[in-house]
Amino acid sequence: MGGRHPLGLFAFVLLVSLTSLVWLTSQSLRAEAKWTWTGAEGLLTLGCLLVIAQLIHWPAKVLATISPAIAELLPLWTAENEPWFQFGEWTCLSLAPTATQAGLVTFMAYCLLFFLVVQYVQDIKDVQRILWWIACATIGMAAIGLAQFLFGNGKFLWIYSHPMRTTYGVVKGTFINENHFAHFIAMGLGPMIWWLRNSITKSNEQHPRGEFSTNRFSVDASTLKASLFIGLGCVCVAGLMSFSRGGVMMMFFAASVTVGLFTCASLLGRNSIVALIGIGAMVGTSLIIFGGDRLSQEMGTITASHSMTELLDVRLTLWKAMLQAHEKFRWFGTGVGSHAEVYPIFFSDYSIFEYTHGESGYFHLLEETGLIGLGLMITGTVCCLRWCHRAFQNQRDREIRACAFVVFAGLLTSILHSLFDFVWYIPSCMSLAVIYAALACRLSQLGLVEGRSFWSKETVFSPMLWRLGTVLVAGGLALMVVQSVRSALASVSWDEYLRISLANDPTSAPSEEQTENMLSELNAVLYHEPNHARAQIRLASLCLLRFEQRQRENDNAMSVSQIREAAFASKFPTKAAQSRWLQAAFGDNYPLLLKAANHARRGAQLCPLQGEAYLILGELTFLESPLPSIKRNYFAQALRVRPNHGGILVAVGGEIAMDGDFDRAMRFWRIAFRQDPIQRAKLLEILGKLPLSAEFFIEQFQPDRMGLTTFYQFFRSQNRNEDAQFVGRKLVVLLEENATKQRLNKAADAWREAREIYLFLKESDKALECARNTSTNAPSSIHDRKSLAKILLDCDRVDEAIQELQWCKSRKPDDLDTLDALKSANRRRVAAGTTLHSKQDASTRTE
Q: What phi and psi, each to the nearest 5 degrees, are found at residue 707?
């Protein structure tokens, strides 16, 4: 997944760590080993210190001074609450320390990679070799992407099945997201254009045999040119067939900047320009065959948008939430890696998707590291651009300038694409940016006169210092690798848990077998990574679910809520007495409650923004405290960190309703009903038991089309036909309005739903009209044409029905249902004709 998956990140950290260790060992074995200074050492050190500052435990007074919003957000995490809630005080700047630790490991790997490249590059040939490697990697990634697109089985590299994504539909290579695949291609276009230009324009004096040579192999010049021509064309086709608007724009940008700089500096000959034009023609022809229309539609959405708000859509809402988080945690942020836990606090719109990243590297960095982190990033960006500018000024060496142009195009692509995507958080994409930054540094130094700048100096350290440094760094690298390997091992079971979980309908509870399988996978996750906060919370939730499932088969079939009320009503003198009663009453099921409470508490300790943890602890408060009021404090904390979470809103509303304040409870339930489709069924399950009419539900909840559909289906399932008819008449009005505004498939879906409602309302004429409209928008649907024929038969339009059925038979001759319906319709037509002739004969005899 480009390093986004823990296994990929582990591979990245391991390779960088091993390479660093090998290089340090080689340096320590030399009599005079040198270190090349970059000027960025202090900047990168400050970056590491910032992340470390987010992880260390601060005194309460200091933390309240530098980040006062934490105490406001986490009122339960104070010393006064410790006796009952057993949380203690929250003393970290990071609100997701485990994720921040992983972020620190990744950042340190980037730093090592930067310094490794800087130390590796000794002359322009080393720079060229690295650019050649990047070009080869780009061709390889494009080849994988095209092969998966044309011959794939839905699995990445034909072996890995992602829980939520497949390789179908677009070219995405080994990336979970096609946008990041396109970015990787865009970052590699510069080196490919540079390589093609070199293969065409190099003089015979430099390559007297007309060959391309490395230490490993030699390639004939004509073969190389043909291979590069085809390779660059395939790379462009693969990138364009990602159908990523932002990625395609960045590809054009990177190519345009590279070609433009080469042209302005007279580094691109006529033959190179002709070759690029030929590649463009090849790419255009390929797109016409494999997906030009779709690309045109995707890019057309940019020009068709009437405003920036319409174009950016949900990104603006997400960025607004991130800016609100920044206002609360202005200087140090919420902690590296905490975005997925923080943004729901401020996100105003409900979404079935989780935005694991900020859709903008700048907003994401500002949210997680505050103004200090953003300032460090901007300083580093300016430093890279100054290096490029210094390399541009080298008029003596055309090769240094050519390489500098490629590096500059790559860096600028990363800088601009990060405005509206999170490419900096994908290690394979970010590693290219880091390598380009290191090359920019060395290119600026290679062109300088000796002694002109302090930062171009090299310092020789003694072998003893190198050996000491190797030992110290080896210890740090071992910790980095251990941290990464734990996450990698845990990710295998986490993926399997997600597959099982996603296979189940979210509106219904999983089966006992599914529950057991998910429990097993989550236990495996925690075995490898005990600090996995989400796994702790999911395990707690599943323990509660398993308890409820077992209780249904128990003689004493009490639910958790009933047990809680009974425990509080019994007023046991001690906690031990209550435990003995629970053990006696529920036997082997009782430990599941204790396990749920322990995992929920541990999950909250690992990440205090997990609202579900407080919800579970509130439900199980009788295990720890004899005070029923403690539950409200848990629910209040849950609502503070997850104000728009449907499950929490429903639970809080239920607690308020139990106190008799039904109107206030309805305010919470209305928000949950409007924002969370999964909770709508639960709300109806709660309120449907009360003698409330459909008119009351509609008046209170003011449902949209989806809400009305939920009400309609609920009343139908409960055989409350009058209420279903009341809702159905309102729903068909919205469906017809929606259908007239939609096109083809979406319009057909609306007309289809309206058709079924009219059939329930026994309004055949309107049902027939909807059926005709459905067939118009879905003309190739055999099922819809058969439904139309059935309604035509019900309306005694036999001839028209036979025409529809004959069409269905022509498309699917062996369909038994169609053949039976056609026979029945023909019999009706014959019977109708016989009846008509009999009436005519009787009329003649009468005359």
A: -65, -45
- What 811-818 contacts at long range (C-beta under 8 Å, 24+ apart), as own/partner pairs, is 811/782, 812/782, 815/782, 817/786, 818/782, 818/786
Tell me the three state secondary structure of residue 212: strand
Contact present, 279 and 264 (Cβ < 8 Å): no
Do 410 and 446 contact (CB within 8 A), yes or no? no
Distance CA 608, CA 70 (A): 10
Residue type, 379: T
- How many angstroms separate the Cα of 498 from the Cα of each of 20, 36, 432, 524, 525? 35, 47, 31, 13, 12
What pLDDT is attached to residue 826?
Answer: 86
From CA 626, how far away is CA 635, in angstroms rounded?
Answer: 17
Distance CA 176, CA 426 (A): 10
* Whether residue 454 has pLDDT greater than 90: no
Closest CA to 193 of 249, 262, 141: 262
Interval 645-678: pLDDT, tens: 888 888 888 888 887 888 888 888 888 888 777 7
Element containing residue 4 per DSSP (H, E): none
- For the ranges 29-38, 488-497, 546-555, the maximum mean pLDDT occurs at 488-497
Question: What are 626-644's pLDDT values in tens digits?
Answer: 677 788 889 989 999 999 8
CB atoms within 10 A of CB 76: 23
Bridge partners of residue 438, in order along the sequence: none
On whether the CB atoms of residues 440 and 383 are closer than 8 A, the answer is no
Q: How far apart are CA 529 and CA 10, in angstroms?
A: 14
Judge whether 295 and 227 are in contact, CB under 8 Å: no
Q: Which helix (H) or strand (E) holds 324?
A: helix 314-328
Is the CB of residue 534 less than 8 Å from the CB of residue 593? no
- CA of 168: how far to CAs of 155, 158, 484, 498, 838, in Å? 9, 12, 30, 20, 62
Strand partners, 160: 156
For the record, the structure tokens of 343 come out as: 């943004």
Cβ-based neighbour number of residue 429 at 10 Å: 27
Residue 535 and residue 529 in contact, taking contact as beta carbons nearer than 8 Å: yes
What average pLDDT does the chain have? 85
pLDDT above 90: percentage of residues in the chain: 44
What is the C-alpha separation between 682 and 747, in angstroms, rounded? 29
Q: What is the DSSP letter of 509?
A: P
CA distance 600 to 395: 65
CA distance 777 to 476: 63
Per-residue DSSP letters for 317-358? Answer: HHHHHHHHHHHHSTTT-S-TT-HHHHHHHH--S--SS---S-
CA angle 139, 182, 387 (to 5 degrees): 85
Phi, psi torsion values for 459, nearest 5 degrees: -115, 135
Average pLDDT over residues 743-750: 83
Using the Cα atoms of residue 197, residue 198, residue 200 and residue 205 in order, give the sign of their dihedral.
Answer: positive
Asked whether the predicted pLDDT for residue 319 surpasses 50, the reply is yes
CA 146 – CA 158 distance, rounded (Å): 13
Contact 444, 393 (CB under 8 A): no
CB atoms within 10 A of CB 184: 26
Q: How does pLDDT run across 246-256, given as a tens digit for each residue?
A: 888 999 999 99
Rounded to an integer, what distance in angstroms lies between the CA atom of residue 783 and that of residue 100?
53
Task: Look at residue 528 in the predicted model and tell me its pLDDT.
Answer: 95
DSSP string across 661-693 = -HHHHHHHHHHHHHH-HHHHHHHHHHHTTS---
Q: Which of 414, 427, 418 is nearest to 6 (CA)?
A: 427
Which residues, other chains included, contact 662 with Cβ-Cβ below 8 Å and sequence gap of 6+? Answer: none
- Say if CB 142 and CB 173 are below 8 A apart: yes
Distance from C-alpha of 437 to C-alpha of 443, rounded to nearest angstrom: 10
In whole angstroms, give the CA distance from residue 32 to residue 488: 39
pLDDT at position 238 over 80: yes
